[in-house]
Design goal:
The structure is a single chain. A six-stranded mixed β-sheet has the order 5-6-8-9-10-7, sandwiched between helices. The chain has two domains: 168 residues, 3-Layer(aba) Sandwich (Udp-n-acetylmuramoylalanyl-d-glutamate--2,6- Diaminopimelate Ligase, Chain: A, domain 1); 111 residues, 3-Layer(aba) Sandwich (Udp-n-acetylmuramoylalanyl-d-glutamate--2,6- Diaminopimelate Ligase, Chain: A, domain 1). By secondary structure, it is of the alpha/beta class. Helix 8 links the parallel strand 8 and strand 9. Helix 6 packs across helix 11. Helices cover 34% and strands 17% of the residues.
Length: 311
Amino acid sequence: MTHSENIFFHKTDNSRRKFIASVGMIAGAEVLLSIPFVSKAANFITPTETVTVGDIMNRFIKDVPGGVLKETVDTLKSGSADMKVKGIVTTMFATVEVIKKTIALDANFIIAHEPTFYNHEDDVAWLKGDAVYQYKLDLLKQNNITVWRNHDYIHRLVPDGVTMGILEQLDWKKYSEKSLPNLINIPSVSLKELIGYLKTKLGIEQVRFIGDVNQTCKKILFEPGAAGRNMQIGGIRQYKPDVLICGEISEWETAEYVRDARAKGDAVSLIVLGHIASEEPGSTFMLNWLKEKFPSIKSTHIPAGNSLSFL
């Protein structure tokens, strides 16, 4: 969500850990609950056993190098870690629409990648008395739904879970560099063909871009989410891709750099997919993880969809 929250193309796990360890502060608001410590439970749950929210959280965190984070935004936004899980929904955002669909499925646990209450830390102090916030919170409480944000942990997986979800959906795993999965070498295509492929595979109506639609593209740097100017511009400078594909930008930063780079004579293009479209495949990755680790629990992916429309 922030300029610095998503760093996906460092070659070393240590640099990734140092970065993510500095991200986010746990808000003190009443709806934010501390995550439990990883338990010493078995690696799997048999179909006859009761599974709680905490069991699922602990099992996922067990796969993450370094384990439990002292500072993280990956807290419960509603509900309880002790709640027995009936069904699970994975999504980018726990929107009101997603919550209502969760209720219709008779599920009671939502695993979202992004904030529930409109800011990175899910600080709700500034929302006290707000009708929209209260409506959403009441909807969750009245239907006994627990929401867990899984952002920092899924990005700390090795390799990054969101990146793996994207590569899987685009059928680009075979083209990505093993030590640097966000650097991808595809068979040569034009920029126009590449944009068309992304729109089809990711279900995107429109994208924003800078570049010559007839330019040949082969070397791609893919930075989902909101990596920010330092990572986006730094990645262009270091890896010299034919095209940078990203989730979102600040228009006065990366876009202006690419425009000037092209005016200088550099053959670099930019494709901006939108934050949600660029990271939603990470929720599919989460769904597949749940089906493998907790096959007895019905798990469903509900896409949050784009909040914005196009004319």
